[in-house]
Amino acid sequence: MVFNHEVLFIHLGKTGGMSVTHYMCNVLKPPVISVINKQFQPDNQIGHEIRVVWKRHGTLVQSRHFLKKYGLQLSGFKLIFCMVRDPVDMEYSYYKHLRKESVISRLSTERSGNQRLACAQNSFDHFARLNFTHFVQDLKDYFTVNGKVPDNMKIIRFEEMPGSVTELLAPYAMKEMPFPHKNRSREKMGPPELSEEGRMNIRKKYAWIYENGFY
After folding, report:
1. Cβ contact 119:130 at 8 Å
2. How many domains does the chain have?
3. Closest CA to 132 of 30, 204, 77
4. CATH at residue 23
5. Is the peptide bond before 31 cis (omega within 30 degrees of 0)?
6. How far, in Å, CA of 62 to CA of 57, rounded?
7. Paired residues of 9 in beta bridges
8. Which stretches does DSSP call E strand in the chain?
9. On the chain, which terminus has fewer CB atoms closer than 10 Å, C or N?
10. Considering only CA atoms, which of 58, 133, 54 is closest in space to residue 98?
11. CA 85, CA 168: separation in Å to the nearest integer?
């Protein structure tokens, strides 16, 4: 989650959120609050960023309570936005993330981390068939409150990210800068072929995204 007094970004994991965070912290009017997990402490401050420890991937529903300490309400933001991505690509991105040496080293000291790492030790198709996701809350809670997408909420597809994000934030930006691409995979090939069971289970886990016509 990243916000100032005008804009709120809800960060669903594996959708390019680090690039969005970097861009927002550089172009928005300060103070810009960047919410991070306790175990995730980047070395360098980004632009006007003020880091606060809470839930980096907190949902829209959860954010209502967190924002009260800043005297903010969801309805008071001029813009709230969140990213969506093809669920197969999102699932594959998380699978690859859990197989990185740096992530294995960090998570292997945690009980819950070991459970997550174990899920990614077999093939991607095996991973897709597990009832396991990178988000722990109900997926719809990233986009809706009481079953409704707020009037000031915009949902952006990952493939349209650079142009859409810069266009959305232009009215609230202090300056222009190229949109950054953080954590971009060097792998040019897409996800491996999935079995019908694996593909159908991804459709089940990411049902809200499919049911609302994003993919």
Report:
1. yes
2. 1
3. 204
4. 3.40.50
5. yes
6. 10
7. 2, 81
8. 2-3, 7-10, 32-36, 49-53, 79-84, 153-157
9. C
10. 133
11. 18
